[in-house]
Specification:
Elements lengths: L10 H56 L7 H11 L3 E4 L5 E4 L13 E3 L29 H20 L5 E4 L5 E4 L24 H20 L9 E4 L10 E3 L8 H19 L7 E5 L13 H40 L16 H49 L7 H29 L7 E4 H11 L1 H6 L3 E6 L4 E4 L1 H18 L5 E9 L2 E8 L25 H4 L4 H11 L3 E7 L3 E11 L3
Parallel strand pairs: 10-12
Antiparallel strand pairs: 1-2, 1-8, 3-8, 4-5, 6-7, 9-11, 11-15, 12-13, 13-15, 14-15
Length: 606
């Protein structure tokens, strides 16, 4: 790609635009989240404070309902303060301190958060309070004895079983006084229906303790009821509602001699409520004032002032400016090596231009990879030129010989005797070998090299290769031996393996002097099978060893085709072994010999 890049498509401009958009969105989102989360947090905190206030009031009301005084309330106040993290102070009605979680001498808040009075609870804020305003945990003289509880529990279980036989599923709930009551899942008995079999009246009868307390209550309320003109048969409370947990309505009154109207009935209920409070008053703690630290704080509505708005706008502008500046610096540093890479890539291929690596980040890695690619391309180009020259040389020599002998034969200079024909045949075989090697390499490069796998015994494979090269070894006066450890097997193409090993053996025989030895070995190495061809020749120089598998490579460039080979044997070996999922490796020490190792995946013994 050439030409000037449009401004809108430049990487630097796009990075600046993207960073600006990100900065604007982040500032806006942060401001919005700050407003929303702050407002929500304030609301949740206010709701949590209200819930904590209710819990504190309920705990202290429970203490007052079950204790005749406040002498042991300090531990409860300290626990509640530690739990809520707030100051809790309890005083008398004239502000004399009963218990305070703050240090002595700390002034009280300007007003009390609530009044703790179990005989006059707020039925709208105090959970579980009775309609009469009496905390249900106040039982006083109505608390049953252990024997009475045990007897009523047996009666309640019998009543529950009776209800179950009629399809009414209930549970037994024990009230603070110890009396068990029966409840359905929805809290009440269905329509107040009681099967006749279950209505034995035993569970509905007040116990002696309850009768004594009810008699005292009737006596306290008697004067007030007389003033209202209400006559009643004694006793006033005749039975117990076994489904009612409320102390004020659990005990059912009998009929008055004269049915009162609604107003008189309300006054009569007020008489009973006042008498019940007077009856329970000795059993509860005195009225107290509850002070909570921060409990009287008014609800806060989050609103951003002009000064805060200016701060937000200023901070947003600063963040935007810093983001753009930092992005410009970073983008410039990123674009500079990219431009250098672009300029190098646009140079003519034959120049093989490289770029300097100035950083160790992703751009530096890209530049290093580009340089490696350039070097690899340069090496491939050199190898390609050398390969074309080598191929031309390898084909030209036998063709020149064949052409020369044919021309002199055509001109009648020599006669086509058997020796001449044999020489021409040898040159044709040399040419055929070069062409076959080139075809195998082309198939390997194209991935079309076909293998016909079958189970192969390594000892038989080595014996076949040794037998095929025995004559050449004897002629060269080189000992050719085989050595097999165990019974290794391969799942491979035996023809291709013989070809690979044959190339290695031919190469070893060619470079081993008379009196030397070439050894073919096979052994197990873990799950792999290792095949080795070792010779006692002159060896390979260390600088030449990395190139032994390169195409058309010879350690001595002056050697002819007949003495030095075409330079294709070892590359063919490497490709054949790679097709079998194996590797080929060479080690050598000059003056000692060379070892070519083929590592292949092993197969189970057959």
């Amino acid at each position: 790609m050439s030409g000037r890049i449009p401004l809108r498509k430049r990487l630097l401009v796009r990075l600046l635009i993207a960073s600006g958009l990100i900065a604007v969105c982040s500032v806006a989102a942060t401001a919005w989240l700050a407003v929303e989360t702050t407002t929500r947090a304030l609301r949740e905190e206010q709701g949590q404070v209200l819930a904590e206030d209710m819990d504190v009031l309920a705990r202290l009301s429970a203490y007052a309902a079950t204790h005749p005084d406040w002498r042991g309330v300090r531990d409860t106040v300290r626990q509640l303060s530690a739990k809520t993290g707030r100051r809790i102070a309890l005083t008398t009605t004239d502000r004399r301190t009963i218990a305070d979680s703050a240090r002595p001498g700390t002034s009280l808040p300007p007003r009390a958060a609530a009044t703790v009075d179990p005989l006059a609870t707020d039925t709208y804020s105090e959970r579980g309070a009775q309609r009469s305003g009496i905390d249900p945990r106040v039982v006083g003289p109505y608390r049953l004895t252990a024997d009475e509880r045990a007897g009523l529990t047996k009666l309640a279980e019998a009543r529950r079983g009776c209800f179950a036989r009629y399809g009414i599923e209930t549970t037994v709930v024990r009230t603070p006084s110890g009396r068990p009551v029966l409840k359905e899942e929805d809290g009440t008995l269905a329509g107040g229906y009681v099967p006749e079999e279950c209505a034995d009246g035993q569970l509905n009868t007040p116990t002696p303790t309850e009768q004594k307390a009810l008699a005292a209550l009737t006596e306290r309320a008697g004067g007030c009821l007389d003033r209202q003109g209400l006559d009643f048969r004694s006793p006033l409370f005749v039975m117990v509602d076994v489904t009612d947990q409320s102390l004020s309505t659990r005990y059912v009154m009998g009929k008055f001699l004269k049915q009162p109207d609604a107003e008189v009935g309300r006054r009569a209920q007020a008489c009973l409520d006042d008498a019940r409070r007077a009856q329970l008053d000795p059993y509860v703690a005195p009225v107290a004032q509850l002070f909570l630290g921060g409990g009287d704080t008014a609800a806060v509505r989050f609103d951003m002032s002009p000064a805060n708005k200016a701060k937000v706008v200023g901070a947003a502008g600063l963040v935007l400016a810093v983001t753009v500046a930092v992005t410009a610096v970073i983008a410039t540093r990123l674009v500079r090596p990219l431009r250098a890479l672009t300029a190098a890539a646009q140079q003519p291929p034959e120049r093989h231009v490289r770029v300097p690596v100035t950083t160790r980040d992703e751009t530096g890695i890209l530049a290093a990879a580009f340089n490696e690619l350039t070097e690899r391309r340069e090496r491939l180009e050199a190898q390609r030129k050398a390969m074309v020259s080598d191929i031309a040389h390898e084909l030209r020599s036998p063709l020149t010989n064949i052409r020369g002998w044919l021309e002199v034969t055509r001109d009648g200079v020599v006669d086509p005797d058997p020796a001449l024909l044999a020489s021409l045949h040898d040159e044709a075989l040399v040419l055929q070998c070069v062409i076959d090697d080139l075809r195998d390499l082309a198939d390997a490069d194209a991935g079309t090299l076909r293998l016909h796998r079958e189970p192969v015994r390594c000892d038989e494979l080595l014996d076949q290769v040794a037998a095929a090269h025995r004559v050449a070894a004897d002629t060269a006066q080189v000992a050719l031996r085989t050595a097999v450890e165990g019974k290794p097997w391969l799942d491979a193409d035996p023809v291709r393996l013989r070809q690979a090993l044959g190339n290695l053996v031919s190469n070893a025989l060619r470079h081993t002097p008379a009196g030397g030895a070439v050894t073919l070995a096979a052994r197990h190495d873990g799950d792999d099978v290792v095949l080795e061809v070792a010779d006692t020749g002159a060896g390979i120089a260390p600088e030449d060893l990395p190139h032994v598998f390169d195409r058309f490579w010879r350690a001595e460039k002056s050697r002819s085709r007949r003495t030095g080979g075409s330079g294709l044997g070892l590359p063919i070996v490497r490709h054949l072994i790679a097709a079998h999922d194996g590797t080929a490796h060479a080690t050598s020490e000059p003056g000692t010999g060379s070892v070519f190792t083929l590592r292949l995946p092993g197969a189970p013994a057959r």
